[in-house]
Design brief:
seven-stranded mixed sheet; Aminopeptidase; 13-stranded mixed sheet; PyrdxlP-dep_Trfase; Aspartate Aminotransferase, domain 1; 806 residues; Aspartate Aminotransferase, domain 2; 39% helix
């Protein structure tokens, strides 16, 4: 059976960033002819600049600029040659200055990203293991991915979770020569710190533990000689620690710096550290500016600059503490983050600040979870106290306006960031000109209205929903018990505008991950059945597929109805929290709906393609064959018709108990052999319920008596739902895998299902998701399918990428 198409992460990011670009929030251009300190011009407006990472403002220091100009005059714009051969004349002085700064010889890299790419693959041996902090900078994570090709175990823990780190250390200890934990000294989005003292304690407790820090956001503004946050805590760099600092950002120039106390390891990295050998070296202007900055760092002036910045940082922090703004971390770094929760609120808030004359950055997915969108504000020495005070005043005023405009609350935002909040966590729903009907059982909804809006689709006509409620209630295992939530929105004339249903159920986090990931995760589930499993509130259910969403897009209230639905599901989620909210399956391209969902904190992901046969009009095999392409006709002749005569084909509404047991085992064969769509196995009671429901029937394939494999046991089965007299729905398949390839059992099941549908006068066959290639061969039309996902935490998604190795 064909595997599914997996989500394209880059496409998802492109959707999110593209939407922010439409809002004129990102991909902007500065328009200044000459920079003024603390000012930047965007779209014709001069704005106070609260987005720079040059915290000490050294990028505008005249000494650095004059040094760079002189270097260009003396040496040109570049020295285009690898440092392996020769360095240009200023390099030796810079290396000497950095060694004086740290008391340790340093390796200069083109930038910090190339620095990680040079250092990490050189420092980590094949028998080592790597543990990444979930929020360690992308450049570290990207460099660590190269290790997988060598078979190095790369794992991930939740941000700053030392208990989780110690557990991973213990699990890797016996099988690894060294274990590297990689983290940021100061984290770039929220401005919080690595727990350095706890990490030092763990490295002493477990001698195999080595530490690797990216401290580019901690550089210059703190520590002796501006050596950064990590050195301000450790004073003397431990032997088992590597530190990557920067000559850009606060340092005011360009380049990265590796500090390593181990001479042997340092020489190994310098002799052949990937980009160190094959990339061009820093331009003369950058080296000269770095030398000028190093002179400042080696003087008493650096402490005056630090104090000046500290004054501004403390002033900003003090003013924020007097507001009700959701500041995510109260700390002493110059990086602050004001949570807005949903992207649409972030867009609104940032644009309001732009209009008031303040430039700030918006934190977006994938740098943060999509529902952790917020405004990142960085304080520099170029920001004056008066401007800082005015920014707080403006933010305090416009934050309430932004949340009012986007129909959210401070309480909801704080909940998304897990911050303490006073007051109720469930917000009232303002229906405006619309009415909402909300129920938790299909029994309470009018059958004719539900079937008119949602009938003839998959297994979710009224009777199908009644069946699902019965089948997935009062079971022994928690993954087999689902909650049902029905939403119907009408206008003031009671005309339906929107209809859908959601289920809250336990999902495997790797459900849509590559099969290679699920194989690894399933190994861990042998000891913990619920490893990497969480509750999800999803449109539709884990047994239904297809368009679970009715919307009258011609209605003037369509957008309002969707927003009302989203607000209701968040109220539901407030009562019983889920790790993720999923809106699925969407086949048509709808830019308005996509933009609306993006603004409300949902990211678009690719789902497995869906397959249908619509408008069944043939009455015979010959007519069916005429509907196929020439290639599919050959496939039918060679792979299906050739073997049809070997099978006894039985359709049964009721099966014996022992037959149901065999049906269940055939289903489990498929379930365990196809991890491309990895869900919990359905309970055996589901098939018992099918057996007792007149709307279900079983297709069973037996070998005829003259076939060598003949027995009284079926070798293939399909459980099919009859949706009114309109849609035939093959829902669950089961196969004897030992015989499947030889006799093309799966393809035979598909054909016999089609044959049953046309003989029974159904109009449509809903083949559902996965195996689209096989279904296309038998005449199905395949539709691209996507969903919108709102995850409260990126951890599991990022963790699963670390499993995609070997």
């Amino acid at each position: 059976m064909a595997k599914i198409n997996h989500n394209n992460f880059l496409d998802t990011v492109n959707e999110v960033i593209g939407n922010a670009k439409k809002q004129q929030i990102v991909h902007l251009y500065a328009e200044d002819k000459r920079f003024e300190k603390g000012i930047i011009t965007v779209n014709g407006s001069k704005l106070f600049h609260f987005g720079t990472t040059s915290y000490l403002g050294l990028d505008q220091d005249e000494r650095l600029k004059q040094a760079a100009i002189e270097a260009i005059n003396n040496y040109g714009t570049q020295f285009p040659l690898s440092k392996t051969y020769i360095s240009h004349p200023l390099y030796a002085e810079l290396e000497s200055k950095i060694q004086e700064l740290y008391g340790i010889p340093a390796i200069i890299t083109k930038n910090s990203t190339l620095g990680h790419m040079a250092v990490i693959p050189s420092a980590v041996n094949d028998k080592d293991a790597v543990i990444l902090d979930h929020q360690v900078h992308w450049s570290v994570q990207n460099a660590a991915q190269m290790l997988r090709l060598r078979g190095v175990s790369v794992q991930m823990i939740r941000h700053n979770n030392m208990d989780m780190l110690e557990s991973r250390i213990k699990s890797l200890y016996d099988s690894s020569e060294r274990i590297w934990y990689m983290a940021d000294g100061v984290y770039s989005m929220f401005g919080d710190f690595a727990p350095l003292e706890e990490l030092k304690y763990l490295s002493e407790k477990y001698p195999k533990l080595h530490l690797y820090f990216d401290d580019v956001h901690g550089m210059s503004w703190c520590g002796k000689n501006g050596m950064g946050y990590v050195m301000s805590v450790y004073k003397d760099l431990p032997e088992n620690c590597l530190l990557l600092a920067t000559l850009s950002k606060s340092f005011g120039a360009s380049g990265g710096v590796l500090i390593c106390k181990n001479n042997k390891l340092r020489n190994k990295i310098k002799n052949f550290g990937g980009p160190l050998t094959f990339s061009a070296q820093l331009e003369p202007a950058s080296v000269a500016a770095a030398i000028a900055s190093a002179n400042i760092h080696l003087s008493q002036e650096i402490y005056e600059l630090q104090e000046d910045l500290q004054l501004r940082t403390q002033h900003f922090s003090s003013l924020l503490s007097k507001t009700d703004l959701p500041v995510i971390h109260n700390n002493s770094s110059p990086v602050f983050y004001i949570g807005t929760g949903l992207p649409i609120t972030g867009y609104n808030f940032v644009k309001r600040l732009f209009k008031e004359g303040f430039f700030v950055n918006l934190g977006l997915f994938p740098a943060v979870p999509v529902t952790n969108t917020g405004v990142r504000i960085t304080i520099s020495r170029n920001n004056q106290l008066k401007e800082i005070g005015e920014l707080v005043k403006v933010m305090n005023h416009h934050f309430s306006k932004a949340i009012e405009d986007t129909n959210t609350t401070n309480t909801n935002i704080r909940k998304l960031f897990r911050l303490k909040s006073e007051g109720t966590t469930i917000e009232a729903i303002n229906t405006g000109s619309l009415n909402m009907i909300y129920e938790t059982s299909i029994q309470k909804l009018d059958k004719s209205i539900w079937n008119r809006l949602m009938g003839q689709r998959s297994v979710f006509d009224w009777l199908g929903m009644e069946f699902l409620e019965k089948a997935f209630s009062y079971n022994n295992e928690k993954e087999h018990n689902w909650e049902f939530h029905y939403i119907l929105v009408t206008n003031s004339d009671n005309k339906p505008i929107l209809a859908t249903f959601f289920t809250r159920a336990l999902w495997k986090e790797d459900m849509l991950a590559p099969e290679s990931v699920s194989i690894q995760v399933e190994e861990k589930r042998k000891n913990n059945a619920y490893y990497m499993s969480n509750y999800v509130l999803s449109m539709g259910s884990l047994l239904t597929e297809g368009k679970h969403f009715y919307l009258d897009s011609t209605s003037l209230y369509a957008r309002e109805a969707v927003l009302l639905m989203l607000k209701k599901i968040h109220v539901i989620d407030n009562v019983k929290s889920s790790e993720m909210i999923v809106l699925r399956d969407f086949f048509e391209k709808d830019d308005k709906l996509t933009d609306l969902f993006h603004g409300q904190g949902f990211v678009k992901i690719k789902m497995p393609d869906a397959a249908y046969i619509n408008n069944i009009q043939w009455n015979s095999e010959a007519e069916y064959l005429n509907s196929l392409s020439s290639r599919s006709k050959r496939h039918f002749k060679n792979d299906i018709k050739k073997y049809e005569g070997l099978f006894d084909i039985k359709w049964q509404n009721i099966c014996k108990k022992e037959t149901l047991g065999i049906i269940y085992q055939l289903y489990l064969n498929v379930k365990h052999n196809n991890l491309g769509l990895n869900t919990f196995a359905y309970p055996q009671s589901l098939f018992k319920n099918m057996n007792e429901d007149k709307n279900w029937e079983f297709l069973l394939l037996y070998f005829k008596s003259h076939v060598s494999h003949a027995s009284e046991v079926p070798v293939g089965m399909m459980c099919c739902y009859k949706n009114s007299n309109h849609t035939f729905v093959p829902v669950v398949v089961g196969i004897d895998y030992e015989l499947s390839r030889t006799y093309n059992i799966y393809r035979q099941l598909l054909y016999q299902t089609i044959k049953r549908a046309w003989e029974s006068k159904f109009e449509t066959i809903d083949f559902g998701l996965t195996a689209a290639f096989e279904k296309r061969k038998v005449g199905a039309t395949v539709f691209s399918n996507h969903a919108f996902v709102q995850a409260k935490d990126n951890y599991f998604m990022d963790y699963m990428t670390t499993l995609q190795q070997r």
